[in-house]
């Protein structure tokens, strides 16, 4: 079973951190023991998105050999476990990315899924996460430049001995979804796990330091991410919107027919 996924892209800003945090939370909501690890040691964001930016020990100290990984694990939403990176430049300078493999092995033994948020680009700290995970998931926006960058990342991953299994199309528009997905699958030569729509709820939930799958569970982005979590884990997807609608219809039917029984 595949357990350690690196979430990568070509350029920054495609939504890797958003996907890591929300897919991790969605897997945890499905009852899977899930850890997320912020391997973007230079531009760490997971801690900021989850309100863990001021914690005393982070992946920085672990990669610098100053702390054990157990000291850098924090509780996130829905039972998710989080290993954030620090935001100081000194911490980044002291961190040795070569220690990441050890950290990954240590974590992967205790969970069902480990999601590693990789840095963008092809620096040393960017390449290590591509090589060490069981599989890489590319987060790609439906734009030519993003697809080309994702393709470069796929080639780089293979060069360093890693493997790209899936793509997730993030910030998708409303039109021609299937066509765009097929085109991207063909260009990258990998299966798409699905499209996450452009959705203002993503930014709004970030302002509350809460994953969108928790803050706005019936939003388009949440439903897409939960569907992807179900696909990865082999669980059945349960559409909250459908059940909310059913609930409403049930209540309406009861209100209408109550007097007629
Ligand atoms: N589906 C979406 N709809 C709307 N906004 C989104 C969506 N996904 C991500 N965003 C927004 O896009 C911005 C970049 O997202 P994110 O930080 O997850 O990207 P990243 O690839 O991790 O970036 P970096 O490489 O700089 O770390 C954030 O402001 C985020 O809220």
Give an account of the 3D structure.
The protein has 261 residues and is an alpha/beta fold. It is 46% helix and 16% strand. It is built from 12 helices and 8 strands. An 8-stranded mixed sheet has the order 3-4-2-5-1-6-7-8, with helices on both faces. Helix 8 (177-188) links the parallel strand 7 (164-172) and strand 8 (191-197). It starts with a strand and ends with a helix. Residues 6-212 form the CobQ/CobB/MinD/ParA nucleotide binding domain.
Summarize the structure.
Pfam families: CbiA. Helix content is 46%, strand content 16%. With 261 residues, it is an alpha/beta fold.
Sequence-ordered SSE layout with sheet pairings:
Layout: E1 4-8, H1 16-29, E2 34-38, H2 46-49, H3 59-63, E3 74-75, E4 81-83, H4 89-94, H5 100-108, E5 113-117, H6 124-132, E6 135-140, H7 144-159, E7 164-172, H8 177-188, E8 191-197, H9 200-207, H10 212-215, H11 220-233, H12 240-257
Parallel strand pairs: 1-5, 1-6, 2-4, 2-5, 6-7, 7-8
Antiparallel strand pairs: 3-4
Helix pairs in contact: 1-11
The structure holds adenosine-5'-triphosphate.
Adenosine-5'-triphosphate (ATP) is lined by residues 9, 12-18, 40, 43, 45, 120, 170-171, 196, 198-199, 202-203, 206, 221.
